[in-house]
Amino acid sequence: MRYFAVPADFPRRALLAGLSVLSFATIAARKFAWAEAAADPLPSWNEGPANDAIRDFVRATTDKGSPNYVPPEDRIATFDQDGTLWVEHPLYTQAMFAFDRVHALSARHPEWRSEEPFRAVLNNDMAAVAHFGEADWAKILAETHTGMSQADFRAIAEQWLATAKHPRYNRLYTELVYQPMLEVLQYLRANQFETYIVTGGGQDFVRALSQRVYGIPAQEVIGSSIATTYVVKNGRPELMRMPKLFFDDNFGGKVVGIDLFIGKRPYAAFGNSTGDREMLEWTGAGDGARLKMLVHHDDADREYAYGPAGGLPDTKVGTFPQSLMDEAKARGWTVISMKNDWKRIFPSTK
Fold first, then answer.
1. Taking the CA of residue 245 as centre, how many other CA atoms within 13 Å lie in the half-sphere pointing to its CB?
2. Is the pLDDT of residue 196 over 90?
3. Phi and psi torsions of 150, nearest 5°
4. For 53-90+172-341, which CATH superfamily applies?
């Protein structure tokens, strides 16, 4: 595998009625607290507002006596992936996959040695890569993600994910998922929530890892996708991947995708960047208890620190501007501080 040193600025949480006599409700509440303490569903979370917000939301929406009770069939939670469920720096994992594909295919394309944007990738010229525009990425994705069947693409992605390692941690990308978020996924599912990935990344790339890594089946992954066409090759039906964007699942597109593929407004939504803003806004516009959370990457020692919210370095990868931070505070969205709210970042390798 080939890895790249990418510049830091590269282009995403009652008072008791009395001590002498306890009501049935108080006893039940205490029993719930004792049981929760005995088997903490969020062991990787520090105490604080973010931890409280998750637990309070689950209690409010699953207690049939609560005015905010939500029937199990309506319990929907959506999660962005890059920067929300796993590491996205120094560059989105799917972009690293595309770069490795350029190298793997370059022998068939000697012209790439002098043709941009391929020349920059083959020369590991990250200064040039940092200035790639939409047209450059479109060319790279067309060559590395299309011209094959869906089955062939899935196999290539799965093979790469089984071996590719992150340049800083020297661990598989699939090991660099956030342990606190894995606990949230499990906590919600244990309380009959359906958990969906709603990502601006490639739908088929994420489907290649979602079940194994997050316990989320492929049909519960919504992402950006390219056009496909049905053909019969050698008597075998195939879906062929075409060099044309079919659906852009980012910004407002996430809301469109949620409505199109889920058909219900989420009660909980998790993101980390401007691309997730509309998803949180849409979730918060519904009635009853709604959980809206944003992961803020502010831990340079254990992971990365970028914003530019909070005076952190600006970045084109997982941008979290001060305007989003201000809006989160104004709307009552919970901002998760990776540094302060998480006891650990990644699952243990032991």
1. 16
2. yes
3. -60, -40
4. HAD superfamily/HAD-like (3.40.50.1000)
pTM of the model: 0.89
pLDDT in tens, 210-262: 999 999 999 999 999 999 999 999 999 999 999 999 999 999 999 999 999 99
As a whole number, the mean pLDDT across the chain is: 90
Mean pLDDT (whole number) for 324-335: 98
For residue 33, give every residue at least 6 positions away whose Cβ sits within 8 Å of its Cβ, in sequence order, or none. none
Beta-ladder partners of 194: 76
Residue in the block written with tokens 């969205």: 333
Residue 39 confidence class, pLDDT cut points 50, 70, 90: confident
Strand spans (E) along 259-331: 268-271, 291-296
Q: Identify the sign of the CA torsion 46, 50, 51, 52.
A: positive
Q: Are 78 and 279 in contact (CB under 8 A)?
A: yes
Give whole-number Cα distances, 343 to 133, 149, 154, 218, 302, in Å: 38, 42, 34, 30, 10
Dihedral angle at the C-alpha atoms of 57, 59, 60, 62, nearest 10 degrees?
A: 110
Strands 221-233 and 236-247 turn out to be antiparallel
Terminus-to-terminus CA distance in the chain, angstroms?
24
Any idea where the domains of the chain sit in the sequence? 53-90+172-341
Where do runs of H (alpha helix) occur along 21-48? Answer: 24-38
Confidence of residue 73 (pLDDT cuts 50, 70, 90): very high
Please give the helix or strand (H or E) that residue 198 lies within, else none.
strand 194-202
Nearest to 289 by CA among 71, 76, 59, 68: 68
SS3 202: strand
